[in-house]
Amino acid sequence: MVLYFSGTGNSQFVAIQLAEIIKDEVVSINSYLKNGKRGSFQSEKPLVFVAPTYSWRMPKVVEQWILAADFQGNRNTYFILTCGDSCGNAAVYAEKLCVKKGLQFCGLSPVLMPENYLAMFPTPSEAECLRIVEKSKPCVAALAGQIQSAEPFNPLSVSFAGKLESGPVNPLFYRFFVQDKGFTVSDDCISCKKCAQRCPLNNVELKSGKPVWKGHCTHCMACIGGCPTKAIEYKSKSKGQHRHYIMNDSLCWGNGGRDH
C-alpha cells in the first residue's frame, strides 16, 4: 500500500508512479486529514509512505497521522521523501516512528523533485522543473524494484550538518518559520476557492470572496502553488518566482490545473 501526502503534487506524482510499477493501491493522506479521519488499513504488501521533506524530516502532520492511524497486515515499512536538495538525517526519525508504531523499518530514500518551497528558497524554471521530474523516474523505478524484492533501501550517508538540520534545527524551523501570517492575496484573485479546496488542513477559507488563513498552516504551499492567477504571495519571498503544480503526470505552470 502506497500512502502519500502532497502539497503541490511532487509526492503525489512519485506515489502514483511507484504504485503503478509495484501494482499496489495508492492512498491520499491529504483526504484523510481534510476529513478529520485517522484511517484504518489492511495491507498484505509493505507500507510505503511518500511525503515531502519539511526541514530535513518527514512533515509533522504526517508523523502524527501515522501514529493515530491503524495498520494491520504487513509490517514492513518504507519511506520516500521528495526534496529539492537533501532530507538530512530524516531516516533516523522515521525509524523511531516505526518503533513507536510497531512497524518494521525498511529504510528511507530521497527522490529529488522541483523545489516548491518558495516561502524560503528559489524555485527552478519551467524547463528545469521538467528536467528534474523526468530525471526522477528512473530513481522511482529503482526504489520500486527494491520494494518488490523485499530489499531494504540503501542506508544514507549523513553529514554533521544534516544531523543538525534534522535535529535541533527542525523544531526551531517550525517555531519561527512555519506560520501563515505572511500570506497575502491581490486583486487578481477570482474567488475560485481552489486554495481552500486544496488545503489539507482546512486552514484556508474565503471571506468576502478572498482567502484568509486561520493559523494552523503546515507550509505545504498547496494554496500558492495551485492558484490559477498567481494572486497569492508569501511576503516578498515568492514574488517573481516560478511556481508549479503537478496533477498525476501533468505539470501545471501557475494556472492551478485540476483539483487533487
UniProtKB/TrEMBL annotation:
<dbReference type="GO" id="GO:0051536">
    <property type="term" value="F:iron-sulfur cluster binding"/>
</dbReference>
<feature type="domain" description="4Fe-4S ferredoxin-type">
    <location>
        <begin position="209"/>
        <end position="237"/>
    </location>
</feature>
<keyword id="KW-0479">Metal-binding</keyword>
<keyword id="KW-0411">Iron-sulfur</keyword>
<dbReference type="InterPro" id="IPR017896">
    <property type="entry name" value="4Fe4S_Fe-S-bd"/>
</dbReference>
<dbReference type="InterPro" id="IPR017900">
    <property type="entry name" value="4Fe4S_Fe_S_CS"/>
</dbReference>
<protein>
    <submittedName>
        <fullName>Flavodoxin</fullName>
    </submittedName>
</protein>
<keyword id="KW-0408">Iron</keyword>
<dbReference type="Pfam" id="PF13187">
    <property type="entry name" value="Fer4_9"/>
</dbReference>
<dbReference type="InterPro" id="IPR047964">
    <property type="entry name" value="EFR1-like"/>
</dbReference>
<dbReference type="GO" id="GO:0046872">
    <property type="term" value="F:metal ion binding"/>
</dbReference>
<dbReference type="InterPro" id="IPR029039">
    <property type="entry name" value="Flavoprotein-like_sf"/>
</dbReference>
<feature type="domain" description="4Fe-4S ferredoxin-type">
    <location>
        <begin position="181"/>
        <end position="208"/>
    </location>
</feature>
